[in-house]
Amino acid sequence: MNDQVTIFDTTLRDGEQAPGASMTIPEKVRLAGQLADLGVDVIEAGFPISSPAQRKAVRRIIDETSGSTVCALSRTREDDVRAAGEALEGGDDTRIHTFVATSDVHIGAKFDDDRFGATLAEKREAIVQMARDAVQQARTYTDDVEFSAEDAGRTDRGFLREIVRAAIEAGATTVNIPDTTGYCTPDEYAALFETVRESLDNPGGVTFSTHCHDDLGLATANSLAGVRAGARQIECTINGIGERAGNAALEEVVMALDVRADALGVSTGINTELLTETSQMVSVCSGFPVQPNKAIVGKNAFSHEAGIHQHGVLKERETYEIMRAEDVGQDVEQIRLGRHSGRHGLFDRLDKLGIDVPEGQKEAVYQKFTELADQKKEIFEADLHRLVKTPDVHTVTTHYELDRMKASVETEQEPAAFARVRHRRDGLTRSAHATGDGPVDALYRAIDHAVDEAHSLIDFTIHAESEGADALGEVSVVISNGANHFSGEAVSPDVLRASAEAYIDALNHMAAFHADEESRQFVSDGIMEAFG
Ligand code: KIV
Ligand code: ZN
Question: Which residue has the CA at smallest separation from atom 6 of ligand 1?
Answer without folding.
Answer: 99
